[in-house]
Amino acid sequence: MKNNQNDMVRVYSDTEITIEMMRTELAKIGIPSLVKNEFRSGVMAGFGASPNSVDLYVKAENFEKATSVIQDLNQDE
Fold it and tell me: Which carries the bigger pLDDT value, residue 62 or residue 75?
């Protein structure tokens, strides 16, 4: 099966710490994800970005399940 980034959809944006926690929880139930960290990229390039510029992506086919998990995790906070 071909892994195409066009099949990826953003499910959540927050800080790097929160996104990593969400990613870990999704991995526990078999949902692979991709993190796009604009903050880190901006710092490395010499210009800034918001620390909340970290996005979590999943395959479109996992969107509903991932969204449900993320909502549950946010309710626990």
Answer: 62
